[in-house]
Design brief:
The protein is mainly alpha-helical. 86% of the residues lie in helices and 0% in strands. It is built from 13 helices and no strands. Helix 2 packs antiparallel against helix 4 and helix 5 packs across helix 8. The chain is globular. The two termini are 12 Å apart. The mean pLDDT is 85.
């Protein structure tokens, strides 16, 4: 049950990160926000890894750094960059629902690549998550490319982020099982994430920080988004060390409901939450509850 609790906490962290990123991007560009948040994620993660996982870092073989580079690329150059771009286009609420499809990608990769064999109840719960996501997004998709081109583009970008996060879950579980401390895995992958993001977003981030010198509020929100994401990533990796991907990933997908609640409370003027989106989020959470039940069977 510790893995379930950590997964729920990770979902809460990802939800808070999305809301904070949405506010921050009112003043700075998505790529700048991505880099600032990743640096903000790196600092506490690196401090914790050096304090509590230094022996694990010293014991890493050279091949591990190659895999951590891959993890950093998939998670931050792929997942976080695309998710922030989607948040800028769609808003945090609708993006979070699409990001919930990462559980489908996680399940597929875990079964086909990692050899996991989930219980039937877990598969039923995953299907419930998918049904909720279809309900939440069907209205915009039905309008088609010609009627709502910007939203459909945002959905495609968010779907790419979801696929990246799905791959991240499988890679992170294998690395934590092979090499140990999730603190080490998160810190080093974040370091590589910053290195990979810098050529893409470094110049823009420096320009946005300079232009915000008189009012650093939006930069602060981007940094807070990174801190919330750091908590989420560390909790996620600890959960993946203790339970299979097919259990952890759907539980983390409770984040859309939390995002909707936080959006309604804090940024209602920026987000439009329809009944269809709420209904879809409800189905998503019901599917997650089935996954939790299936994890105990």
């Amino acid at each position: 049950m510790l893995a379930v609790g950590l997964s729920l906490l990770a979902g809460l962290g990802f939800a808070g990160s999305g809301i904070l990123a949405r506010v921050g991007m009112q003043g700075i560009r998505p790529l700048s926000s991505t880099l600032i948040s990743t640096v903000a994620s790196l600092l506490p993660s690196a401090a914790l890894a050096l304090a509590f996982a230094l022996s694990d870092i010293r014991a890493l073989p050279p091949i591990a750094f190659l895999w951590l580079l891959v993890l950093g690329g998939v998670n931050f150059l792929g997942g976080r960059t695309l998710s922030y771009l989607a948040i800028d286009i769609l808003g945090a609420s609708r993006t979070s629902v699409i990001l919930g499809t990462s559980t489908v990608f996680s399940t597929f990769f875990a079964i086909t690549l990692a050899g996991e064999r989930p219980h039937l109840v877990i598969l039923m719960g995953t299907a419930g998550v998918v049904a909720g996501l279809i309900i939440a997004t069907s209205e915009s998709i039905r309008r088609g490319w010609s009627g709502d081109r910007r939203s459909l583009l945002g959905y495609l970008v968010a779907l790419g982020a979801a696929a990246s996060y799905g791959g991240t879950n499988v890679i992170a579980r294998e690395l934590t099982l092979e090499y140990g401390s999730p603190l080490m895995i998160s810190a080093i992958s974040l370091f590589f994430g910053v290195i990979l993001l810098w050529p893409l977003a470094g110049k823009a981030a420096v320009q946005d920080i300079r232009s915000s010198a008189g009012n650093m509020g939006m930069v602060g929100f981007a940094a807070l988004s990174g801190l919330a994401a750091a908590i989420a990533v560390i909790c996620l990796y600890y959960a993946l060390q203790r339970a299979e991907v097919v259990i952890v990933a759907p539980i983390v997908s409770t984040s859309p409901l939390t995002t909707l609640l936080l959006a309604k409370i804090f940024i209602a003027r920026l987000e439009q939450i329809t009944r269809r989106v709420l209904l879809g989020a409800t189905f998503t959470v019901m599917g997650v509850l089935l996954v939790i039940i299936g994890s105990t069977l």
